[in-house]
Please model this.
Amino acid sequence: MTRVSPCIRRTPGISLGVLRQANGVANSITVAHDVFDDLEWLTVPDLVEVLGRTQSQVRRLIEDRHLVAVRRDGVLVVPASFIRDRDVLTELHGTAIVLSDLHFTDDEIVRWLVSEDDALGATPIDALRSGRKAEVRRVAMTLA
Model:
């Protein structure tokens, strides 16, 4: 679970409440729900175990965009949904390249892949997992 700084308090439902003091008046600011909070994450050591590869091989998969990783609390992690049957989801690589070519950061790539997309009627990662690779990439190319 992500640590929350003292100035941020968790509220039930889908938002974080932030309390700020401005001119002696406390204002509560609502921040949209972060889809990252709902994901199961795998660290590099987790990936070594799951994939049965060395740490160097796992890091190479990340460098070559077969996996896309982000830092959470300073730790490099990959969403568990990027793994299928103890192997890398092969459909992810080309999609990550398309988004990278559109100048998406790794954080933006992961966020788009795990967020609901109206054009797909699902999250792009779920669409990839269900065999809709061409459709996902077509939608990704429209994000330019």
Residues 99 and 140 are 7 Å apart (CA to CA).
